[in-house]
Write a structure and sequence with these properties.
alpha/beta; Arc Repressor Mutant, subunit A; D-Maltodextrin-Binding Protein, domain 2; five-stranded mixed beta sheet; 12 helices; 12 strands; rod-shaped
Length: about 325
């Protein structure tokens, strides 16, 4: 068989070889394969020609393999077994017994909210799965999300949360919901009521939350589209810092609505609707298409999406 290439060999011959090894009889081998006896005899002739060996010798105890045939059959049997295993459906994923690490990229906004829903659930549902929440720089402002998409390409993260950016076709995504904005102010700020007007909103010193050094954030550009603006006096990269600053001053801040309960309960702030149509964005969960049918990943997506929906109704 020197110099033979795989594309010149009929792989069905190895199924016949395996049956002959098991049955030691051409007729029985044919029956086990659902073939005729002449078809198996013809295949045996092709095997002999392929390996330049007699392969089987007729004896009173049946067809006995040659030493060359025995060596070949050992490797063929192992290979066929691996092929059979490979085409079997994957076992159902069981999070209760899994021991692995998953990595999720998300903005600072979600990092302050979602782990508080995910982690308590994992104690009983997936006790040995470690969730690593990684920063998603660029997903909260007008900066490109290309870095996150590159990480998904490389497999260094499993999931990413993005705003409503254009998502390339090599990724799958699920829209989790829409997020609009509210305004918050300290309860000690007597000028801040539960329903502020646009003049107050536009003239009162504002804390802006931004992870990049820019004059106009994406939110400010969205405000301009509805004919509104902010009087920004300071910029802070994290919502937690902005809320803490608002609690201690007469400054105000615009925050996503899903953060409103945190503002009320942890920082004792008043919450007002915006005095104009609020900008709104969708939050999407994104992953690489190559992982669409992976059992672990299917469970992860369903689990995390469920946790986000709980966050929305809190």
């Amino acid at each position: 068989m020197a110099g033979k290439k795989l594309n010149t060999v009929d792989l069905n011959l190895f199924k016949v070889l395996n049956a002959l090894i098991e049955q030691r009889n051409v007729t029985k081998a044919a029956q086990s394969l659902g073939l005729s006896q002449p078809a198996v005899s013809h295949a045996l002739g092709r095997l002999r020609a392929l390996f330049d060996d007699e392969m089987f010798v007729r004896t009173p105890d049946g067809m006995m393999p040659t030493q060359r045939c025995k060596k070949i059959s050992q490797r063929v049997t192992a290979s066929l077994s691996e092929i059979v295993d490979a085409i079997q459906p994957e076992e159902m994923f069981d999070p209760s017994t899994a021991n692995t690490v998953v990595r999720i990229a998300m903005s600072e906004l979600l990092t302050g909210l979602l782990p508080g829903v995910i982690l308590p659930k994992t104690r009983s549902v997936a006790p040995n799965i470690e969730f690593r929440m990684l920063p998603a720089r660029g997903l909260t402002q007008q900066v490109s999300s290309e870095e996150i998409l590159t990480d998904l390409d490389k497999g260094t993260i499993d999931l990413a949360f993005t705003w409503n950016y254009e998502i390339p076709g090599r990724f799958s995504w699920l829209k989790l919901g829409d997020v609009d904005y509210v305004c918050v102010g300290a309860k000690s700020n007597v000028k801040f009521g539960r329903k502020i007007d646009q003049i107050y909103y536009e003239t009162t010193p504002h804390v802006s939350t931004s992870t990049v050094d820019t004059d106009l954030t994406r939110f400010d550009m969205e405000l301009a589209e509805v004919g509104a603006s902010r009087n920004i006096k300071t910029r802070i990269p994290h919502y937690t810092g902005a809320l803490a600053l608002v609690a201690e001053t007469e400054m105000i801040a615009s925050i996503p609505r899903i953060l409103a309960d945190v503002a009320r309960q942890r920082y004792d702030l008043n919450v007002s609707e915006l005095p104009f149509a609020s900008p709104s964005r969708s939050i999407n969960m994104v992953w690489h298409k190559t992982r669409d049918t992976e059992p672990l990943h299917m469970w992860l997506r369903d689990f995390v999406a469920g946790c986000y929906r709980e966050l929305e109704v809190q």
